[in-house]
Amino acid sequence: MAYEIDKPEEQWRAELTPQEYHVLREAGTERAFTGEYTDSKTVGVYSCRACGAELFRSETKFESHCGWPSFYDPADSSAVELLEDRSHGMARTEVRCTRCGSHLGHVFAGEGYPTPTDQRYCINSISLRLTPEEG
């Protein structure tokens, strides 16, 4: 897929920290319960740390106790793309930013959380940047 923001990997490496690059550009995962937004209750907008595209809103964030921020729906269905991921011997659905193709995390369905969509977008904190709502 062609992305609106398409940079050479050298440029991504220069713009992101080594940890951000590993997760966003190499589909890595931060350790559970270590991300800055895992337990955040701040009201605001979560954007892609690589390109700034709006991805999720705090109203859809919920407590899943899985170790990463969880959302039941993206801010806009076209904000994320879903790809089959068969790495690590598992069948999962990868979540990427549609604007720059950066890896965000995975989405799971049918786990029984009391949310309107019965989906859990399990997203790495390091893939996101929270802009608090002004109030």
Automatic annotation (TrEMBL):
InterPro entries: Met_Sox_Rdtase_MsrB, Met_Sox_Rdtase_MsrB_dom, Mss4-like_sf
EC code: 1.8.4.12
Catalytic activity as recorded in UniProt: L-methionyl-[protein] + [thioredoxin]-disulfide + H2O = L-methionyl-(R)-S-oxide-[protein] + [thioredoxin]-dithiol
GO MF annotations, alphabetized: peptide-methionine (R)-S-oxide reductase activity
Keywords: Oxidoreductase
Domain annotation MsrB: ranges: 9-133
Lineage: superkingdom: Bacteria
Top EC class, one word: oxidoreductase
PANTHER family listed in its UniProt record: METHIONINE SULFOXIDE REDUCTASE (PTHR10173), METHIONINE-R-SULFOXIDE REDUCTASE B1 (PTHR10173:SF52)
Protein name stated in the entry: peptide-methionine (R)-S-oxide reductase
Taxonomic source organism: Streptomyces niphimycinicus
Source species taxonomy: Bacteria, Bacillati, Actinomycetota, Actinomycetes, Kitasatosporales
Recorded name of the encoding gene: msrB
